[in-house]
Amino acid sequence: MKSTLYPKFILVYLVFAFMSIFTVATLTENLVSEPLEEKTSSDMYREATLVANDYLTRYFSDQISSADVHLQLNAIESQLNAAVWFVDRDGNLISSAQSDSYPAAPTAIDNFDPAESGSAQYQTGDYHGYFSKDVITVIAPVVYSYSPKGYLIIHKYVSDLTDLRDILLHGAFITLTIIYALSFMILLAFHFFVYRPLHIITEAATQYAVGNLDYEIPVKTEDEMGYLSASLNYMASQLKDMEDYQKKFVANVSHDFRSPLTSIKGYVEAMADGTIPPELHEKYLNIILFETERLTDLTHDLLTLNEFDTKNLLLNKTAFDIHDTIKHVAASFEGVCTQKKISIELLFATKYLRVTADQRKIEQVLYNLLDNAIKFSDTNSIVTIETTERGEKVYTSVKDNGIGIPRNSLNKIWERFYKTDLSRGKDKKGTGLGLSIVKEVIQAHGENINVISTEGVGTEFIFSLPKSS
User: Fold this and answer.
1) CATH 1.10.287.130 in the chain, residue ranges
2) Parallel, antiparallel, or unpaired: how do β-strands 458-466 and 393-400 relate?
3) Domain 5-163: which CATH class?
């Protein structure tokens, strides 16, 4: 079997890794750089404004000296790692402080314009060409006597922010690598919990497709995959049982059709070639008629069962008196009962007892049960049909005093074509489908049928029907 799902998942995993790295390398850089520049410039402007308003104004009132100013600028330079210039209103340098990485401050700033930043708090660039690299520049006025007397200018290399950004990106890449490594567990989980069980289930489906219904999926989990495996195992067992049943069904049907057809063919050929003389034709024609009736009954029963198998049976439920139906069915056996000297005893719970069911189907149930009871009863015995009312149910019992059913056969009597060893001698014409039809009809009504039997004593069948309101 060609595997394609697993390589696809690996490919998706690798694409996920590439896209994650690409996203961090591009999107994160843009997301970090601008906020970092805004935050740094804001801190610089706040520091410059604070010093300009609270300290440098004293210079113009002669409260502090140039040395004090220089000391303050050095503190700012150490704190911000920047170049700090203090100039007058015309851009002439008063004092400055900068580290070795920054060029010395000019004695006067060419074309000095304190408002060149516009409404922004800062500006970026080489600041009139005084720096070889781009810097962030903030300018804070030093106001004395309600007018600006000078300006505090702070410059900081943009590259310093780049270094900080790279540190943050480095941490982001390390975190991404760890996440990517941990996400490998998802791949392993997919392999063990999805791909492997799915591979086994696919193999099972292939085996079932080629007819190997003995293949069983090992169920080791109780999750959805385990449930699916168990369902497929159950489906395979049902299909296997159905296959065995079909083989048995065909064998039984073939046997039951072959026997009467062989007899009919043999007798007809014997009559045609003169082996059976004309004076015996009537005898053998009766035998042929008997075998024909067997075939007719078998065909009728098979068609009836086919209605249940194809789910085409539609019950025509009506309310009717079960006692009238029992009397009508019992009356149809008058001739057989007279011949075998068997009495039918009717024990009714009330004079009238109405149920809701398909009357024609219930007549068939009663006919089959009563036919079996009479067929397997001894001469001069009694067959009892009794009704009992319990709550919303009506129970009907058909009881005989015949040969009974062996205990090991009680669970098999509902199977199609099944006959006990005891019944074969007494039932020459039966098809072995009567009780199967009975159970199918009762179950189609949503009711139950039970059997109580003792070998050599008798048998009782009891089925329920809903009482009509």
Assistant:
1) 224-309
2) antiparallel
3) alpha beta
147-157 and 123-125: which strand pairing?
unpaired
Total-model pTM = 0.45
Residues 150 and 6: their CA atoms lie apart, in Å, by: 72
- Start-end of CATH 3.30.565.10 domains in the chain: 317-466
CA pair distance 127, 9, nearest whole angstrom: 54
Res. 64: pLDDT tops 70 = yes
In tens, the pLDDT along 44-58 reads 999 999 998 989 989
Range 317-466 classified under CATH 3.30.70.20: no
Where does the pLDDT of residue 305 fall: very low under 50, low under 70, confident under 90, or very high at 90 and above?
low
Whether residue 385 is predicted with pLDDT greater than 90 in this model: the reply is yes
For the domain spanning 224-309, the CATH number is 1.10.287.130
How does pLDDT run across 99-147, given as a tens digit for each residue? 888 999 999 998 888 888 888 888 999 998 999 999 999 999 999 888 8
Position 3, amino acid: S
